[in-house]
Amino acid sequence: MIALWACTDAVPEPPEDVAVYTQVIAELKAEPETAMSRCDGLSDAGTRGDCQLLVARRAVRGPSSVPTEWCDRVNEGLWRHECFFEAAETLRRRGRSEDAAAACLLSGDFVNDCAQHLWQTPVHRLFQGDATGFAALYPEALAIYERWVPALSEATDLDQRFWSRFWEQGFLSWGRDEAHCEGLPAEVLARCTQAVAVTRPPPIHPDGPAPVRPKR
Predict the structure, then answer these.
(1) pLDDT tens, 16-67?
(2) Alpha helices in 27-157 (DSSP H)
(3) What is the CA radius of gyration of the chain?
(4) What is the DSSP letter of 199?
(5) Structural domain spans, the chain
Protein backbone atom coordinates (compact mmCIF):
# COMPACT_ATOMS: atom_id res chain seq x y z
CA MET A 1 0.00 0.00 0.00
CA ILE A 2 2.85 2.39 0.76
CA ALA A 3 4.33 1.87 -2.72
CA LEU A 4 0.91 2.54 -4.27
CA TRP A 5 0.52 5.82 -2.41
CA ALA A 6 4.05 6.84 -3.38
CA CYS A 7 3.27 6.38 -7.09
CA THR A 8 0.03 8.30 -7.18
CA ASP A 9 -0.07 11.93 -8.24
CA ALA A 10 -3.70 12.43 -7.26
CA VAL A 11 -4.44 15.65 -5.41
CA PRO A 12 -7.42 15.62 -3.04
CA GLU A 13 -10.27 17.87 -4.10
CA PRO A 14 -10.78 20.93 -1.88
CA PRO A 15 -13.57 20.23 0.63
CA GLU A 16 -15.51 23.27 -0.55
CA ASP A 17 -15.45 21.92 -4.14
CA VAL A 18 -16.86 18.62 -2.94
CA ALA A 19 -19.62 20.35 -1.02
CA VAL A 20 -20.70 22.49 -3.97
CA TYR A 21 -20.52 19.61 -6.44
CA THR A 22 -22.54 17.36 -4.14
CA GLN A 23 -25.19 20.04 -3.79
CA VAL A 24 -25.42 20.61 -7.55
CA ILE A 25 -25.92 16.86 -8.05
CA ALA A 26 -28.63 16.76 -5.40
CA GLU A 27 -30.60 19.71 -6.77
CA LEU A 28 -32.02 18.05 -9.87
CA LYS A 29 -34.50 20.85 -10.59
CA ALA A 30 -32.18 23.76 -9.90
CA GLU A 31 -32.23 26.61 -12.42
CA PRO A 32 -29.43 25.74 -14.89
CA GLU A 33 -27.91 29.21 -15.06
CA THR A 34 -27.50 29.37 -11.29
CA ALA A 35 -26.12 25.83 -11.13
CA MET A 36 -23.62 26.52 -13.93
CA SER A 37 -22.38 29.62 -12.16
CA ARG A 38 -21.70 27.55 -9.06
CA CYS A 39 -19.78 25.01 -11.12
CA ASP A 40 -17.74 27.77 -12.75
CA GLY A 41 -16.42 28.76 -9.35
CA LEU A 42 -14.92 25.38 -8.48
CA SER A 43 -11.14 25.47 -8.17
CA ASP A 44 -10.38 21.89 -9.24
CA ALA A 45 -10.45 21.67 -13.06
CA GLY A 46 -11.68 18.09 -13.17
CA THR A 47 -14.47 18.65 -10.70
CA ARG A 48 -15.42 21.88 -12.46
CA GLY A 49 -15.64 20.15 -15.84
CA ASP A 50 -17.66 17.27 -14.42
CA CYS A 51 -20.02 19.70 -12.71
CA GLN A 52 -20.45 21.83 -15.82
CA LEU A 53 -21.15 18.76 -17.94
CA LEU A 54 -23.77 17.59 -15.47
CA VAL A 55 -25.57 20.94 -15.59
CA ALA A 56 -25.32 21.18 -19.38
CA ARG A 57 -26.68 17.65 -19.73
CA ARG A 58 -29.75 18.62 -17.72
CA ALA A 59 -30.17 21.96 -19.48
CA VAL A 60 -30.12 20.59 -23.04
CA ARG A 61 -33.14 18.42 -22.29
CA GLY A 62 -35.33 21.50 -22.09
CA PRO A 63 -37.55 21.75 -25.20
CA SER A 64 -36.49 25.35 -25.86
CA SER A 65 -32.81 24.90 -25.09
CA VAL A 66 -29.96 25.43 -27.54
CA PRO A 67 -27.73 22.46 -26.65
CA THR A 68 -24.56 23.74 -28.28
CA GLU A 69 -24.70 27.01 -26.36
CA TRP A 70 -24.55 25.12 -23.09
CA CYS A 71 -21.66 23.01 -24.34
CA ASP A 72 -19.66 26.14 -25.15
CA ARG A 73 -19.68 26.85 -21.42
CA VAL A 74 -18.16 23.52 -20.41
CA ASN A 75 -14.40 23.29 -19.84
CA GLU A 76 -12.40 22.62 -22.99
CA GLY A 77 -11.23 19.06 -23.55
CA LEU A 78 -13.01 15.76 -22.97
CA TRP A 79 -15.78 17.34 -20.92
CA ARG A 80 -16.80 19.72 -23.69
CA HIS A 81 -16.39 17.03 -26.33
CA GLU A 82 -18.69 14.74 -24.35
CA CYS A 83 -21.22 17.55 -24.10
CA PHE A 84 -21.28 18.07 -27.86
CA PHE A 85 -21.67 14.30 -28.31
CA GLU A 86 -24.75 14.33 -26.10
CA ALA A 87 -26.03 17.54 -27.70
CA ALA A 88 -25.86 15.83 -31.09
CA GLU A 89 -27.97 12.96 -29.81
CA THR A 90 -30.53 15.40 -28.42
CA LEU A 91 -30.70 17.30 -31.70
CA ARG A 92 -31.07 14.04 -33.65
CA ARG A 93 -34.03 13.06 -31.51
CA ARG A 94 -35.57 16.44 -32.29
CA GLY A 95 -35.22 15.75 -35.99
CA ARG A 96 -32.56 18.42 -36.52
CA SER A 97 -30.13 16.34 -38.52
CA GLU A 98 -27.91 19.14 -39.81
CA ASP A 99 -27.51 20.65 -36.36
CA ALA A 100 -26.79 17.21 -34.92
CA ALA A 101 -24.03 16.64 -37.47
CA ALA A 102 -22.56 20.08 -36.72
CA ALA A 103 -22.48 19.24 -33.01
CA CYS A 104 -20.71 15.97 -33.73
CA LEU A 105 -17.97 17.82 -35.59
CA LEU A 106 -17.23 19.66 -32.34
CA SER A 107 -16.92 16.47 -30.28
CA GLY A 108 -13.17 16.11 -30.68
CA ASP A 109 -11.86 12.57 -30.33
CA PHE A 110 -15.45 11.31 -30.13
CA VAL A 111 -16.34 12.59 -33.60
CA ASN A 112 -16.51 9.19 -35.33
CA ASP A 113 -18.52 7.55 -32.56
CA CYS A 114 -20.82 10.57 -32.46
CA ALA A 115 -21.39 10.40 -36.20
CA GLN A 116 -22.22 6.70 -35.96
CA HIS A 117 -24.93 7.46 -33.41
CA LEU A 118 -26.68 9.57 -36.04
CA TRP A 119 -27.08 6.81 -38.63
CA GLN A 120 -26.78 3.48 -36.83
CA THR A 121 -30.42 3.11 -35.76
CA PRO A 122 -31.93 3.31 -39.27
CA VAL A 123 -29.25 0.91 -40.51
CA HIS A 124 -30.14 -1.61 -37.80
CA ARG A 125 -33.83 -1.27 -38.64
CA LEU A 126 -33.17 -2.40 -42.21
CA PHE A 127 -32.51 -5.90 -40.90
CA GLN A 128 -35.71 -6.23 -38.88
CA GLY A 129 -37.76 -7.36 -41.87
CA ASP A 130 -37.80 -10.58 -43.86
CA ALA A 131 -34.95 -9.82 -46.26
CA THR A 132 -32.16 -12.41 -46.33
CA GLY A 133 -29.72 -10.73 -48.70
CA PHE A 134 -27.97 -7.40 -49.06
CA ALA A 135 -29.32 -6.72 -52.54
CA ALA A 136 -32.82 -6.12 -51.21
CA LEU A 137 -31.60 -3.65 -48.60
CA TYR A 138 -28.81 -1.91 -50.45
CA PRO A 139 -30.93 0.88 -52.05
CA GLU A 140 -32.28 1.92 -48.65
CA ALA A 141 -28.84 1.71 -47.09
CA LEU A 142 -27.41 3.85 -49.86
CA ALA A 143 -30.12 6.46 -49.25
CA ILE A 144 -29.22 6.60 -45.56
CA TYR A 145 -25.54 6.88 -46.40
CA GLU A 146 -26.04 9.63 -48.95
CA ARG A 147 -28.17 11.58 -46.49
CA TRP A 148 -25.15 11.99 -44.21
CA VAL A 149 -22.39 12.36 -46.81
CA PRO A 150 -22.60 16.16 -47.15
CA ALA A 151 -22.16 16.75 -43.41
CA LEU A 152 -19.94 13.87 -42.33
CA SER A 153 -17.89 12.46 -45.19
CA GLU A 154 -14.88 14.78 -44.93
CA ALA A 155 -14.48 14.98 -41.15
CA THR A 156 -15.38 11.43 -40.10
CA ASP A 157 -14.77 7.83 -41.14
CA LEU A 158 -18.32 7.60 -42.52
CA ASP A 159 -17.46 5.64 -45.68
CA GLN A 160 -15.46 2.93 -43.95
CA ARG A 161 -17.55 2.60 -40.85
CA PHE A 162 -21.00 2.84 -42.42
CA TRP A 163 -20.47 0.02 -44.90
CA SER A 164 -18.53 -2.06 -42.40
CA ARG A 165 -21.51 -1.91 -40.04
CA PHE A 166 -23.95 -2.61 -42.87
CA TRP A 167 -22.18 -5.81 -43.93
CA GLU A 168 -21.57 -6.92 -40.36
CA GLN A 169 -25.18 -6.39 -39.32
CA GLY A 170 -26.29 -8.59 -42.19
CA PHE A 171 -23.89 -11.36 -41.27
CA LEU A 172 -25.00 -11.17 -37.65
CA SER A 173 -28.61 -11.49 -38.79
CA TRP A 174 -28.22 -14.18 -41.48
CA GLY A 175 -24.87 -15.86 -40.91
CA ARG A 176 -21.52 -15.24 -42.58
CA ASP A 177 -22.12 -16.54 -46.09
CA GLU A 178 -21.02 -15.05 -49.41
CA ALA A 179 -24.40 -16.02 -50.85
CA HIS A 180 -25.91 -13.01 -49.06
CA CYS A 181 -23.89 -10.76 -51.40
CA GLU A 182 -25.51 -12.09 -54.56
CA GLY A 183 -27.37 -9.57 -56.67
CA LEU A 184 -25.50 -6.50 -55.45
CA PRO A 185 -24.28 -3.92 -58.00
CA ALA A 186 -20.87 -4.84 -59.35
CA GLU A 187 -19.19 -1.79 -57.83
CA VAL A 188 -20.02 -2.90 -54.28
CA LEU A 189 -20.08 -6.67 -54.68
CA ALA A 190 -16.33 -6.95 -54.00
CA ARG A 191 -16.68 -5.00 -50.75
CA CYS A 192 -19.35 -7.39 -49.55
CA THR A 193 -17.43 -10.55 -50.45
CA GLN A 194 -14.31 -9.18 -48.77
CA ALA A 195 -16.35 -8.54 -45.64
CA VAL A 196 -17.30 -12.22 -45.46
CA ALA A 197 -13.77 -13.03 -44.30
CA VAL A 198 -13.81 -10.48 -41.50
CA THR A 199 -14.60 -12.11 -38.17
CA ARG A 200 -15.54 -8.84 -36.45
CA PRO A 201 -16.01 -5.16 -37.38
CA PRO A 202 -12.88 -3.01 -37.67
CA PRO A 203 -11.98 -1.28 -34.40
CA ILE A 204 -13.81 1.96 -33.81
CA HIS A 205 -10.48 3.73 -33.29
CA PRO A 206 -8.03 2.09 -35.74
CA ASP A 207 -5.27 4.60 -34.98
CA GLY A 208 -5.09 3.95 -31.27
CA PRO A 209 -7.08 3.24 -28.13
CA ALA A 210 -10.48 4.81 -27.78
CA PRO A 211 -10.54 8.04 -25.78
CA VAL A 212 -12.10 7.66 -22.36
CA ARG A 213 -15.43 9.42 -22.14
CA PRO A 214 -16.26 10.95 -18.75
CA LYS A 215 -18.52 8.92 -16.52
CA ARG A 216 -22.20 9.63 -17.05
Answers:
(1) 777 878 887 777 677 888 889 989 999 889 889 999 999 998 887 776 678 8
(2) 32-40, 45-59, 67-71, 78-93, 97-104, 111-126, 134-152
(3) 22
(4) S
(5) 13-106, 111-203
